[in-house]
């Protein structure tokens, strides 16, 4: 059979992109009234979403073959500027409104060139709320457009134009057209306007991986940091990046092909690891909950590997076929599809619903991966042998899992000496503290509110699940106690409806051992109970580091910065300080007052900002390869903190 050739998506519009291509659906006021409906939240996550919404417009120009460079800058006043060298937002008069198309795009919700009027073939900004929502939620925003030799501009305050669109100058002949959007988020809306450089940089890196040939430059003047992202290999480079610290079984496989009106691209590489790391995208949007494209990809992988194994007698007659779980052990893959009319199951676009994508992805990946297996029989047999080993381990894990279920009816009596359960039976009102050591466990049991707080003390450090298969993990007594107490099961057997506690809280000492135990637990939850994190059920307790007595008053202090502030405020007072080395040093009353009482305590909710980067980080910190971990420790040791 002939080799499939990589084909770039021909996405250039066949019509002129002008004001007639801008379609209006509705206005802006609702955005300021209910910002969470449009950007998810008004905390730091929502703040970062503002930047993403503007950057997505530039990405759409790149997907249309009209831009190859994006520049993002955060200045010292938290003003963000996003520049692309695309066509520039149209500035001519819009036929429906009689105003400039630029003003329509910036002030009308659901207005843009992405609703079938010929502006774009594919676009990440499906709902058309992006830049207008940013405008509505900004203290001020300025849009500048380079088009036809002129620079056009319009400024807005909280979404309201301050003047007509006007020409403010000319740009040099021969230079590219494009759009510059600058904005300052509204402090009346957002809880903070302090951007996190690393979170944004990781998102831009991901965008560059997914848009082959696009250069993204990101500068943060507040901390004097700049990064440039450009990946000629596209998603193949993405897979190599994720596997940088893993031992791989073969060079990355890649396929890209148009099919009907859509476009399918996938990159695959197997490693010696045990975990599956598959990330899916639709029109460059991270579909974290998967969807039809993921279903098609998995079906293609399982069918193709089983077909090859049967034809080449790697699986003998009578041997059971490999399951999907078997064929995905140690798999790292990126699946990226581009569609004219994507259908997402929610505003957050976390799951793709287009039925046709299942068969299209299965067809493209199945044919190309089948050819690759035939051309690389040694690597193919190594992948299948890994799947056969995984199947044996899966059967052993099933027996171990059945043992856990048989030993427990999910009541406190099933864990004598470990779980001190609460009387509350409504999960939403109950919480489980996972506590390091018997000493701290004893204090927590005595200090807790028995009505709604359960305590599970762990003896020593749990198994590092990053280096272990499921069957070995389920033999670990502490992990079995965790699984039984929480009630959901693990991995593909995870069932959120069986969750026994609305909050699962990690409470460990504020020292190196405590940090290590916390990391081992976080690794377990990320790998085997990730939905617990995604739905906001996992927390980290914040016990105080110090007890300070000033005169007759006592203060609990939770970090070194707060300690210094307290010193400054009480320079003349008698300052007596006790540092808590562990939870066991606090008596039950102190532990309740500082760390467990809902009225006083501080809990940090565990969130995953970027699943792909979290996957890579856990592998680097907890995996088998030592040199990357050593480099990380040497680089970051000076910045290490014992508190979270």
Polypeptide structure, described:
This protein is an alpha+beta fold and 644 residues long. The chain has four domains: 19-229, Histidine kinase-like ATPase, C-terminal domain (Heat Shock Protein 90, 2-Layer Sandwich); 235-394, Ribosomal Protein S5, domain 2; 415-544 and 589-639, Rossmann fold; 546-579. Strands 1, 2, 3, 4, 5, 6, 7, 8 and 9 form a nine-stranded mixed beta sheet that branches. A five-stranded mixed beta sheet has the order 10-11-14-12-13, sandwiched between helices. The protein has a five-stranded mixed beta sheet with strand order 16-15-17-18-22, with helices on both faces. Strand 4 (150-157) and strand 5 (160-161) form a beta hairpin. Helix 3 packs antiparallel against helix 5 (130-136) and helix 8 (292-311) packs parallel to helix 10. The N and C termini lie far apart (56 Å). The model is unreliable at 1-12, 408-413 and 636-644 (pLDDT under 50).
How are the elements arranged and paired?
Blueprint: H1 29-33, H2 36-39, H3 44-63, E1 69-74, E2 80-84, H4 101-107, H5 130-136, E3 138-147, E4 150-157, E5 160-161, E6 166-170, E7 178-185, H6 197-210, E8 215-220, E9 225-229, H7 235-242, E10 253-259, E11 262-270, E12 277-282, E13 285-286, H8 292-311, H9 324-327, E14 331-338, H10 356-375, H11 377-407, E15 431-436, H12 438-447, E16 453-458, H13 470-473, H14 477-486, E17 503-507, H15 512-528, H16 530-534, E18 538-541, E19 546-550, E20 553-557, H17 560-569, E21 575-579, H18 588-596, E22 603-605, H19 611-622, H20 626-636
Parallel strand pairs: 1-8, 12-14, 15-16, 15-17, 17-18
Antiparallel strand pairs: 1-2, 2-7, 3-4, 3-7, 4-5, 4-6, 8-9, 10-11, 11-14, 12-13, 18-22, 19-20, 19-21
Helix pairs in contact: 3-5, 3-6, 8-10, 12-18
């Amino acid at each position: 059979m002939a080799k499939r050739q990589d084909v770039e998506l021909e996405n250039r519009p066949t019509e002129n992109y002008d004001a007639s291509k801008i379609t209006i659906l509705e206005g802006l006021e609702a955005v300021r009234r209910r910002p969470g409906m449009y950007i998810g939240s008004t905390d730091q996550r929502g703040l970062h979403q503002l930047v993403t919404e503007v950057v997505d417009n530039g990405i759409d120009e790149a997907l249309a073959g009209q831009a190859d460079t994006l520049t993002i800058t955060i200045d010292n006043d938290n003003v963000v500027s996003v520049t692309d060298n695309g066509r520039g937002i149209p500035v001519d008069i819009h036929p429906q409104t009689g105003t400039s198309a630029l003003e329509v795009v910036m002030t009308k919700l659901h207005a843009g060139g992405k609703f079938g009027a010929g502006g774009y073939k594919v676009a990440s900004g499906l709902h058309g709320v992006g830049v207008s929502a940013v405008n509505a939620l900004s203290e001020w925003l300025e849009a500048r457009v380079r088009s036809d030799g002129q620079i056009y501009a319009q400024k807005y305050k909280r979404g309201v134009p301050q003047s007509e669109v006007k020409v403010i100058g000319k740009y040099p002949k021969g230079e590219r057209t494009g759009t510059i959007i600058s904005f300052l988020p509204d402090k009346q809306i957002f809880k903070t306007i302090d951007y996190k450089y690393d979170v944004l940089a990781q998102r831009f890196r991901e965008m560059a991986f997914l848009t082959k040939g696009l250069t993204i430059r990101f500068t943060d003047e507040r901390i004097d940091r700049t990064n440039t992202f450009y990946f000629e290999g596209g998603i193949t480079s993405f897979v190599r990046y994720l596997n940088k610290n893993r031992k791989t079984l073969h060079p990355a496989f890649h396929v890209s092909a148009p099919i009907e009106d859509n476009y399918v691209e996938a990159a695959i590489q197997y490693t010696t690891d045990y975990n599956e790391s598959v990330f899916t995208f639709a029109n460059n949007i991270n579909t974290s909950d998967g969807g039809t494209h993921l279903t098609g990809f998995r079906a293609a992988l399982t069918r193709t590997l089983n077909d090859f194994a049967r034809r080449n007698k790697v699986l003998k007659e009578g041997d059971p076929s490999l399951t999907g779980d078997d064929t995905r052990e140690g798999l790292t893959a990126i699946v990226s599809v581009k569609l004219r009319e994507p259908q997402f199951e929610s505003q957050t676009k976390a799951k793709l619903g287009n039925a046709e994508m299942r068969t299209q992805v299965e067809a493209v990946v199945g044919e190309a991966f089948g050819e690759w297996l035939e051309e690389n029989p040694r690597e193919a047999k190594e992948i299948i042998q890994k799947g056969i080993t995984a199947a044996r381990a899966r059967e052993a894990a099933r027996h171990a899992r059945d043992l856990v279920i048989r030993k427990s009816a999910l009541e406190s009596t099933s864990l004598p000496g470990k779980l001190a359960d609460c009387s509350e039976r409504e999960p939403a009102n109950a919480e489980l503290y996972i506590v390091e050591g018997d000493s701290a466990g004893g204090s927590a049991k005595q200090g807790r509110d028995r009505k709604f707080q359960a305590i599970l003390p762990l003896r020593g450090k749990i198994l590092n699940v990053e280096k272990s298969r499921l069957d070995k993990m389920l033999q670990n007594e502490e992990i079995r106690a965790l699984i039984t107490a929480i009630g959901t099961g693990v991995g593909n057997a995870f069932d959120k409806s069986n969750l026994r506690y609305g909050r699962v809280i990690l409470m460990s000492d504020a020292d190196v051992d405590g940090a290590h135990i916390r990391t081992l637990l976080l690794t377990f939850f990320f790998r085997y109970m990730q939905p617990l994190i995604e739905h906001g059920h996992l927390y980290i307790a914040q016990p105080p580091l110090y007890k300070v007595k000033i005169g007759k008053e006592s203060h609990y202090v939770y970090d070194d910065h707060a300690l210094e502030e307290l010193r400054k405020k009480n320079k003349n007072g008698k300052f007596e300080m006790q540092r808590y080395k562990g939870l066991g040093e606090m008596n039950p009353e102190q532990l309740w007052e500082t760390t467990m009482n809902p009225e006083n305590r501080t809990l940090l909710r565990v969130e995953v900002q970027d699943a792909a980067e979290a996957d890579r980080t856990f592998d680097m910190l907890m995996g088998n390869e030592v040199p990357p971990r050593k480099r990380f420790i040497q680089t970051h040791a000076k910045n290490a903190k014992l508190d979270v």
